[in-house]
Amino acid sequence: MSERPGAALKQARDLGASRRLVERLPVTMRPALNQQLSQWSTLFPFEQTQVAGFLQGVQAMSPARLAALTEPLWTLEKKMGVRNWNFSEANDTIENASQLARSEYYGEWRREVQRIFEAIDAASRDSTPTHAERTRLILMVLPGSLPVDPQSVWRQWDPRGHEIRISGHSERLCDLVLQGQPGLPGIAALAAQQGSVDSSDIWLIDAEAKLGSLLSPASPSATSSLGYAALRPFRDRFLAELNKAPKSIRVTDEIVNSLRVESWDGWGLWPAEIASQPRLRRFVIDLFLSGNGALIFSNAFVEWAVCEALRRARPGTIVARFGMRSKPKPFTSIAVFENQQKISSLPDTDDPENSAIDAVILARYIWLAARRYPEQEQTICLCIPEHLNSGYLILPAGKSLSWSPDRSISPEELSIWLGKQLVS
Fold first, then answer.
1. How confident is the model at residue 3 (pLDDT cuts 50, 70, 90)?
2. Taking the model in full, what pTM does it have?
3. CB 354 within 8 A of CB 111
4. Which end of the chain, C or N, has fewer beta carbons within 10 A?
């Protein structure tokens, strides 16, 4: 990832100057930027760098050049009648999105916004030095409780990958990667050795509650750790508040905004590993407001949390562990995100077969999401179904296996190999 100059970051912290730069842009480009500026302290370093770089690009353009670049969008906004809308410039809202999507010029508007963003971003990159990329890791674990079908599990995966054989106890690999072994430290210590001190560089995302327990006592502060099970008290309360929203876009926007700005600190619902990290708390709130099932399905939580971490933080290492979900209960509605435990008195029942199907599909979605970003070219992706003693390994561009795929490799050997790749 390229680094933006420190002066640009300082400029982005000066909200007054930054907002004046935003005001030079067409109206429909302002909400997302203003929302990010208002939440500056809870943005991840990558996001701060991106916003600061974009604003640097705006500032670097002469008034005449910026006017020529944005004139087609200003003209289009007049044709759309944006000035007559109830359009928020402070935040991205549901009503904003609805008004834009209803316009007959929506497709043209999207193309113009994309063109302007790309031109300004290019202007910023032209004066920015680039830095060599290090190897990254996405490790996904399908726990042994999920009966993954060995005949079809890799059928639609990236053909560049390799099915590898693991010689017994493949469930140990996650422990070894997180905790380390003699002569090889765990991932948090490896990252620290490379100068990574920000917790957003290592993410542990778990459908259950295993990954966090594998870290040494000194490690949690150096990681972003999210567990669906540990978040249950917060999820229940958040879901109850969210379900108060009526079927009105404007009122829903007000409720969503109130949930977004609510600190939730006084409720005592945050797990210990999140309670002291305002940025991670904000990430969870944004995740649950995205309306994608992360509130009610553990495996959807894992997949969407990983995708959002990739988009917003570009971490060096992600370890994601899927898990078991319960069967949806009859006479309840998952479409409107009803709390299955509270709406029905029927006991929860595990759903191993469908949980396995979910996990396999969503693990592949994670890799497809990672492929959208240039960092993917330096990323090792490894998916391990623990009960199969095998895995699927996708290597960075230009890399090849250092052992024959026909040979079984022990979890210890595989962990050492991964460690060497991450420090090379």
1. very low
2. 0.86
3. no
4. C
